[in-house]
């Protein structure tokens, strides 16, 4: 897959061959996004063209918001690019979302990007907007195209009697409802990181854990205990993950993400790994002593084994 990073107004690219372009920010590349991209690929294949995606980075709210804010993504850019490639996308244009780009008129966006990049067909969701303050709507796009490219609008994609959206998925993850989030995404929610040294207290409890340093701006689920899959070296292992502050032992510790990997005994410090999140069991709890904590961890392990045995 070819990836071009564009910074307005310097948008010259070598590849302006005819292509079908899918439009969207695509955070999460969820089932709604997949419908847009798959239709773009179907059209491109039908016409012997390449499938392209035009997306942005960072999230528009970083630039347009009145207050400075940090965005936590369902799929940071590198992860988004991986998922787009898995869907068969040939070319991705990543436009740096700046104030100058945000101030483009809808007409200028069409001319400077869609026409300039060789669009022969453009596909986007029914609620996609473009140009300054989102003034351009999908129903207007064919008029701006002036016959130079065709337009396909993807209708609202629904699940649980509501629109599938990144906002809904984000809310589900933040509330610990990973079952719903995974259903809307169409795959298990995943974060990546590096295994680092922790305080090794898990070993004394009989539950040694892989302590994870998450470097990207992933959205982290709420505090608590989860059933997860731990992926390392291309292999997947069932595990139970803890997101919390080890409140039984400390009150001033930073939040940690630790995974007790079932039936696993290997030194993996410094290695990159992934965590797939499946199911929330319980919130973080403070125990009066180690015995109560150990008993609860045994129950958590039993619950995790039962979950994956289903």
UniProtKB/TrEMBL annotation:
Key word Zinc present: no
InterPro entries per the UniProt record, alphabetical: Cyt_trans-like, FAD_synthase, Riboflavin_kinase, Riboflavin_kinase_bac, Riboflavin_kinase_bac/euk, Riboflavin_kinase_dom_sf, Rossmann-like_a/b/a_fold
Keyword Transferase included in the entry's annotation: yes
Pathway(s): Cofactor biosynthesis; FMN biosynthesis; FMN from riboflavin (ATP route): step 1/1; Cofactor biosynthesis; FAD biosynthesis; FAD from FMN: step 1/1
Ranges of residues in domain Riboflavin kinase: 184-309
Catalytic activity: FMN + ATP + H(+) = FAD + diphosphate; riboflavin + ATP = FMN + ADP + H(+)
EC number: 2.7.1.26, 2.7.7.2
CDD domains in alphabetical order: FAD_synthetase_N (cd02064)
Highest taxon, organism lineage: Bacteria
Alphabetical keyword list: ATP-binding, FAD, Flavoprotein, FMN, Kinase, Multifunctional enzyme, Nucleotide-binding, Nucleotidyltransferase, Transferase
Enzyme class: transferase
Pfam families: FAD_syn (PF06574), Flavokinase (PF01687)
Family as reported in the entry's similarity comment: Belongs to the ribF family.
NCBIfam families in the cross-refs: cyt_tran_rel (TIGR00125), PRK05627.1-3 (NF004160), PRK05627.1-5 (NF004162), ribF (TIGR00083)
Protein name, UniProt field: Riboflavin biosynthesis protein
Organism, as annotated: Listeria floridensis FSL S10-1187
Organism classification: Bacteria, Bacillati, Bacillota, Bacilli, Bacillales
């Amino acid at each position: 897959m070819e990836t071009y990073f564009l910074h307005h107004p310097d948008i010259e690219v070598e590849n302006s061959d005819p292509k079908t372009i899918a439009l969207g920010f695509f955070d999460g590349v969820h089932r709604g996004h997949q419908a847009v991209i798959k239709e773009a690929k179907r059209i491109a294949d039908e016409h012997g063209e390449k499938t392209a995606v035009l997306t942005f980075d960072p999230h528009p709210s970083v630039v347009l918001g009145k207050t400075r804010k940090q965005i936590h993504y369902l799929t940071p850019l590198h992860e988004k690019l991986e998922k787009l490639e898995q869907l068969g996308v040939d070319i991705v244009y990543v436009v740096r979302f700046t104030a100058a780009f945000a101030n483009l008129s809808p007409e200028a966006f069409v001319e400077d990007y869609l026409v300039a990049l060789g669009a022969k067909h453009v596909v986007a969701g029914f609620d996609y907007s473009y140009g300054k303050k989102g003034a351009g709507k999908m129903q207007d796009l064919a008029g701006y195209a002036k016959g130079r490219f065709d337009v396909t609008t993807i209708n609202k994609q629904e699940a649980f009697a509501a629109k599938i959206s990144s906002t809904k998925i984000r809310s589900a993850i933040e509330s610990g409802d990973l079952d719903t989030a995974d259903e809307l995404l169409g795959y298990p929610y995943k974060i990546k990181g590096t295994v680092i040294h922790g305080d090794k207290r898990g070993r004394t409890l009989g539950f040694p854990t892989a302590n994870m340093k998450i470097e990207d701006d992933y959205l982290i689920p709420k505090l608590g205990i989860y059933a997860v899959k731990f992926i390392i070296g291309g292999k997947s292992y069932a595990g139970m993950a803890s997101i919390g502050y080890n409140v039984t032992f400390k009150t001033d510790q930073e939040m940690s993400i630790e995974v007790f990997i079932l039936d696993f005994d290997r030194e993996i410090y410094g290695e990159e790994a992934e965590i797939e999140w499946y199911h929330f069991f319980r919130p973080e709890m403070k125990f009066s002593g180690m015995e109560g904590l150990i008993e609860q961890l045994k129950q958590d392990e039993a619950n995790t084994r039962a979950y994956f045995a289903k």
